[in-house]
Amino acid sequence: MISAAAPLLATIPSPDRGVWHLGPIPIRAYALCIIAGIVVALWWGERRWIARGGSKGAVVDIAVFAVPFGLVGGRLYHVITDNQLYFGEGKNPLNALRIWDGGLGIWGAIALGAVGAWIACKRKGIPLAAMADTLAPAIVVAQAIGRLGNYFNQELYGDHTDLPWGLEIYERIDAAGNRDLLGGVAVGHVPLADSPVHPTFLYELLWNLGVALLVVWADKKFRLGHGRAFAVYVAGYTAGRFWIENMRSDSANHIFGLRVNVWVSLLVFVGAVVYLVLAKKKGPREAPETLRGNDPDDAEDTVDSPETPVEEPEKKADEEPADVTAGASAPDEAPAGDERKVEGGQ
User: Fold this and answer.
1) In terms of CB atoms within 10 Å, which end of the chain has fewer, N or C?
2) How many helices (H) and strands (E) does the chain have?
3) Is pLDDT at 5 greater than 60 in this prediction?
4) CA 86: distance to chain centroid?
5) How far is 78 from 30, CA to CA, in rounded Å?
6) What is the pLDDT of residue 112?
7) What is the residue-wise DSSP string for 25-66?
8) What global pTM score does this model have?
9) Which residues contact 173 (CB under 8 A, 6 or more apart)?
10) What is the pLDDT of residues 119-153, one digit of tens each?
11) How far apart are CA 77 and CA 155, in angstroms?
């Protein structure tokens, strides 16, 4: 029988591995989490875009450009800010290409991903700011899912802690018996010296989910447009990243005593808040008809086309004139048989 005074959970255990093998093919948990995050973001982003009045399939079309741009940008940021891991004496520069080993900087992913999204939006005639507002909560949820990959990789944690949610991290070894914390297996679950530690990846995961709720609430209440919902996401995320980054114990480059990502968080937060205030002058949210793009399949049919005039019924001389308002469609409504209508209102 468990004593009432005994803690329900002494520590959080880490997975015994982050890589499984199907024959010669490695299945990496980090990659699966990134893919799962992208899938969820596309699914939710598509629903939000359609509800806002946009055309079906537009989010996927944008993602074809934005996702690969974002992955390259995220990796570039990591390699630039942690260049000592890949360049210098005894280092192999080709390891910078091993994205499956972890190491994606969200700042680079958002920056270069935005370039890819801009290119795609330009091609489709869709306002980038409206697409960014739509995808903002979906992106931060994708980040939360991606943080689970750090759990399987046993990375991005903080200092030692005795708190009940402390994370146990284990020694991992490969098939030859050599230490391999990333690709090895925790045989015997031997804890590392600092274990248990603060699960800072978990703190960020939970914070990201809170930011997603904040963006959805603010977007619904204030009908944010012109990139303001995206600015709320950026400001909310960087506010959390500022204090979480200061808790991490992994090696990082510093500027004036602070980690590089702390400075970036601070600067990006200020920029997001300034944009949030200034963008209010752009007026109300974008009209739904502006989100349809220049795809001919997305264009709405005209209600009263001059090529197809409506014939008036012949009236008898002794009949009273019919009420012209009875049963008539409103000027901005489509005929009842028209199945191609703007989807929205969710």
Assistant:
1) N
2) 7, 4
3) no
4) 27
5) 16
6) 96
7) EEEEHHHHHHHHHHHHHHHHHHHHHHHTTPPTTHHHHHHHHH
8) 0.81
9) 179, 180, 184, 185, 187
10) 999 999 999 999 999 999 999 999 999 999 999 99
11) 18
Residue-level length of the chain: 346
Instruction: Quote the tokens at residue 85.
Output: 């891991």
Round to whole Å and give the CA distance between 165 and 10. 7
* Cβ proximity of 51 and 344 under 8 Å: yes
- Distance, CA of 240 to CA of 265 (rounded, Å): 9
Q: How is residue 183 written in tokens?
A: 């690709």
Taking residues 164-178, report their average pLDDT: 94
Cis peptide before 331 (omega within 30 of 0): no
Alpha carbon distance 52, 291 (integer Å): 8
Contact 286, 225 (CB under 8 A): yes
C-beta atoms surrounding 148 within 10 Å: 19
Look up residue 327 and give its amino acid.
G
Count of CB atoms situated within 10 Å of the CB of 131: 27
Token pair 């703007």 in the structure block, residue? 342
| Single-letter amino acid, residue 24 | P
Per-residue pLDDT band at 346 (split at 50, 70, 90): very low
The predicted-structure confidence for 46-76, as pLDDT tens digits, reads as follows: 999 999 999 999 999 999 999 999 999 999 9
User: Does the CA dihedral 51-273-74-245 come out positive or negative?
Assistant: negative
Q: Going by C-beta distance under 8 Å and a sequence separation of 6 or more, which residues neighbour residue 317?
A: none
Phi, psi (deg, nearest 5) at residue 217: -65, -50
3-state class (DSSP) for residue 244:
helix
| Closest alpha carbon to 287 in 112, 66, 116, 52 | 52
Structural Rg of the chain based on CA atoms? 27
Token pair listed for 154:
């046993």
List C-alpha distances in Å: 27 to 17, 22, 142, 232, 265: 11, 7, 20, 36, 33
- Contact call for residues 205 and 148 (beta carbons, < 8 A): yes
